[in-house]
Amino acid sequence: MATVVQNxxxxxxxxxxxxxxxxxxxxxxxxxxxxxxxxxxxxxGVLPAGASFPFDFGFLPGTHGxxxxxxxxxxxMDEPAYPGVxxxxxxxxxxxxxxxxHGNTVRNDRLLAVSSISRxxxxxxxxxDIDKHLLTEIEHFFKSYNAIKGFDFEVVGRFGAKRAxxxxxxxxxxxxxxxxxxx
Length: 183
What we know:
Elements: H1 4-7, E1 18-24, E2 30-35, E3 40-46, E4 56-60, E5 71-76, E6 86-101, E7 104-107, E8 110-115, H2 132-148, E9 152-160, H3 161-180
Parallel strand pairs: 5-8
Antiparallel strand pairs: 1-4, 1-6, 2-3, 4-5, 6-7, 6-8, 6-9
EC number: 3.6.1.1
Keywords: Hydrolase, Magnesium, Metal-binding
GO biological process, one term: phosphate-containing compound metabolic process
Protein backbone atom coordinates (compact mmCIF):
# COMPACT_ATOMS: atom_id res chain seq x y z
CA MET A 1 0.00 0.00 0.00
CA ALA A 2 1.38 3.39 -0.97
CA THR A 3 1.98 5.89 1.79
CA VAL A 4 1.42 9.63 1.76
CA VAL A 5 5.20 10.17 1.63
CA GLN A 6 5.59 7.82 -1.35
CA ASN A 7 2.87 9.70 -3.23
CA UNK A 8 4.31 13.12 -2.46
CA UNK A 9 6.21 14.56 -5.43
CA UNK A 10 9.77 15.76 -4.87
CA UNK A 11 8.86 19.10 -6.45
CA UNK A 12 5.83 21.24 -5.63
CA UNK A 13 4.50 22.19 -9.08
CA UNK A 14 2.78 25.34 -7.81
CA UNK A 15 5.63 26.92 -5.86
CA UNK A 16 8.61 25.29 -7.57
CA UNK A 17 10.03 24.34 -4.16
CA UNK A 18 11.48 20.93 -3.40
CA UNK A 19 9.61 18.93 -0.76
CA UNK A 20 12.17 17.93 1.88
CA UNK A 21 10.95 15.54 4.58
CA UNK A 22 12.95 15.89 7.80
CA UNK A 23 14.17 12.70 9.42
CA UNK A 24 16.77 13.98 11.91
CA UNK A 25 16.81 17.54 13.30
CA UNK A 26 19.85 19.75 13.62
CA UNK A 27 21.70 19.18 16.90
CA UNK A 28 20.32 15.68 17.45
CA UNK A 29 22.50 12.75 18.45
CA UNK A 30 19.62 10.44 17.54
CA UNK A 31 19.48 9.31 13.90
CA UNK A 32 15.91 8.72 12.74
CA UNK A 33 14.81 7.10 9.51
CA UNK A 34 11.41 6.87 7.89
CA UNK A 35 10.07 3.31 7.75
CA UNK A 36 7.70 3.28 4.77
CA UNK A 37 6.17 -0.08 5.74
CA UNK A 38 5.24 1.06 9.25
CA UNK A 39 4.66 4.67 8.15
CA UNK A 40 6.59 5.78 11.25
CA UNK A 41 9.97 7.22 12.08
CA UNK A 42 12.31 4.67 13.59
CA UNK A 43 15.31 5.36 15.82
CA UNK A 44 18.18 4.00 13.73
CA GLY A 45 21.12 4.88 15.95
CA VAL A 46 22.70 7.26 18.42
CA LEU A 47 25.84 9.27 17.74
CA PRO A 48 28.58 9.28 20.37
CA ALA A 49 28.78 12.06 22.94
CA GLY A 50 30.01 15.28 21.35
CA ALA A 51 28.67 14.41 17.87
CA SER A 52 25.43 15.72 16.45
CA PHE A 53 23.83 16.53 13.11
CA PRO A 54 25.09 19.93 11.89
CA PHE A 55 21.80 20.76 10.11
CA ASP A 56 18.44 19.11 9.57
CA PHE A 57 18.81 15.89 7.59
CA GLY A 58 16.09 14.38 5.46
CA PHE A 59 15.12 13.13 2.04
CA LEU A 60 13.26 13.98 -1.15
CA PRO A 61 10.15 11.82 -1.56
CA GLY A 62 9.53 10.27 -4.96
CA THR A 63 13.25 9.76 -5.61
CA HIS A 64 15.72 6.89 -5.44
CA GLY A 65 19.49 7.03 -5.27
CA UNK A 66 21.98 4.36 -6.23
CA UNK A 67 21.86 3.10 -2.63
CA UNK A 68 18.13 2.29 -3.07
CA UNK A 69 16.95 4.95 -0.63
CA UNK A 70 15.37 8.33 -1.36
CA UNK A 71 17.93 11.05 -2.09
CA UNK A 72 19.48 12.51 1.07
CA UNK A 73 19.24 16.23 1.82
CA UNK A 74 21.10 18.34 4.34
CA UNK A 75 18.82 21.33 4.91
CA UNK A 76 20.08 24.70 6.07
CA MET A 77 17.50 26.71 7.98
CA ASP A 78 17.21 28.92 11.02
CA GLU A 79 15.97 26.50 13.66
CA PRO A 80 15.71 22.71 13.83
CA ALA A 81 12.49 21.09 12.60
CA TYR A 82 11.02 17.77 13.76
CA PRO A 83 11.00 14.33 12.14
CA GLY A 84 8.18 14.14 9.61
CA VAL A 85 7.96 17.86 8.88
CA UNK A 86 7.75 18.83 5.20
CA UNK A 87 9.96 21.84 4.48
CA UNK A 88 9.80 23.61 1.11
CA UNK A 89 13.36 24.18 -0.04
CA UNK A 90 15.70 25.37 -2.78
CA UNK A 91 18.59 23.15 -3.91
CA UNK A 92 21.96 24.87 -3.80
CA UNK A 93 24.36 22.02 -4.51
CA UNK A 94 25.54 18.52 -3.85
CA UNK A 95 28.42 16.83 -2.09
CA UNK A 96 29.11 13.88 -4.39
CA UNK A 97 30.27 10.84 -2.44
CA UNK A 98 30.92 7.14 -2.61
CA UNK A 99 29.96 5.06 0.39
CA UNK A 100 31.39 1.61 1.05
CA UNK A 101 29.45 -0.78 3.27
CA HIS A 102 30.48 -4.41 3.70
CA GLY A 103 32.76 -4.22 0.64
CA ASN A 104 30.05 -2.78 -1.63
CA THR A 105 30.64 0.77 -2.93
CA VAL A 106 27.74 2.91 -4.21
CA ARG A 107 27.16 6.60 -4.84
CA ASN A 108 25.46 8.20 -1.85
CA ASP A 109 25.44 11.92 -2.57
CA ARG A 110 24.27 14.54 -0.09
CA LEU A 111 22.10 17.25 -1.61
CA LEU A 112 22.41 20.66 0.01
CA ALA A 113 19.32 22.82 0.26
CA VAL A 114 18.07 25.98 1.96
CA SER A 115 14.60 26.29 3.46
CA SER A 116 12.45 28.52 1.27
CA ILE A 117 11.54 30.59 4.31
CA SER A 118 14.93 30.73 6.01
CA ARG A 119 15.93 34.21 7.09
CA UNK A 120 19.55 33.36 7.89
CA UNK A 121 20.45 31.47 4.70
CA UNK A 122 18.43 33.31 2.03
CA UNK A 123 21.59 34.70 0.39
CA UNK A 124 22.84 31.19 -0.37
CA UNK A 125 21.95 30.44 -4.00
CA UNK A 126 24.67 27.93 -4.89
CA UNK A 127 27.25 25.76 -3.14
CA UNK A 128 29.94 28.35 -3.94
CA ASP A 129 28.12 30.73 -1.57
CA ILE A 130 28.73 28.43 1.42
CA ASP A 131 31.85 29.14 3.45
CA LYS A 132 34.52 26.59 2.44
CA HIS A 133 35.32 25.83 6.09
CA LEU A 134 31.66 24.99 6.73
CA LEU A 135 31.61 22.67 3.69
CA THR A 136 34.72 20.92 5.00
CA GLU A 137 33.06 20.50 8.41
CA ILE A 138 29.92 19.05 6.79
CA GLU A 139 32.01 16.58 4.80
CA HIS A 140 33.94 15.66 7.96
CA PHE A 141 30.65 15.01 9.76
CA PHE A 142 29.52 12.52 7.11
CA LYS A 143 32.93 10.82 7.04
CA SER A 144 33.03 10.40 10.82
CA TYR A 145 29.32 9.45 11.03
CA ASN A 146 29.93 6.63 8.56
CA ALA A 147 33.24 5.61 10.17
CA ILE A 148 31.40 5.07 13.48
CA LYS A 149 29.22 2.53 11.66
CA GLY A 150 32.28 0.89 10.08
CA PHE A 151 31.59 2.35 6.63
CA ASP A 152 33.77 4.46 4.37
CA PHE A 153 32.44 7.77 2.99
CA GLU A 154 34.64 9.33 0.33
CA VAL A 155 33.85 12.78 -1.09
CA VAL A 156 34.41 12.77 -4.85
CA GLY A 157 33.33 16.33 -5.61
CA ARG A 158 31.32 19.43 -4.84
CA PHE A 159 28.83 20.66 -7.40
CA GLY A 160 26.32 23.47 -7.72
CA ALA A 161 22.56 23.77 -7.94
CA LYS A 162 22.27 22.67 -11.58
CA ARG A 163 24.00 19.35 -10.88
CA ALA A 164 21.81 18.85 -7.79
CA UNK A 165 18.67 19.45 -9.87
CA UNK A 166 19.88 16.96 -12.50
CA UNK A 167 20.51 14.34 -9.79
CA UNK A 168 16.99 14.85 -8.45
CA UNK A 169 15.47 14.51 -11.92
CA UNK A 170 17.40 11.25 -12.42
CA UNK A 171 16.37 10.07 -8.95
CA UNK A 172 12.72 10.80 -9.80
CA UNK A 173 12.99 8.73 -13.00
CA UNK A 174 14.59 5.86 -11.07
CA UNK A 175 11.76 6.04 -8.51
CA UNK A 176 9.14 5.85 -11.29
CA UNK A 177 10.94 2.90 -12.87
CA UNK A 178 11.09 1.09 -9.51
CA UNK A 179 7.37 1.74 -8.94
CA UNK A 180 6.48 0.26 -12.34
CA UNK A 181 8.62 -2.79 -11.60
CA UNK A 182 6.87 -3.23 -8.26
CA UNK A 183 9.88 -2.37 -6.13
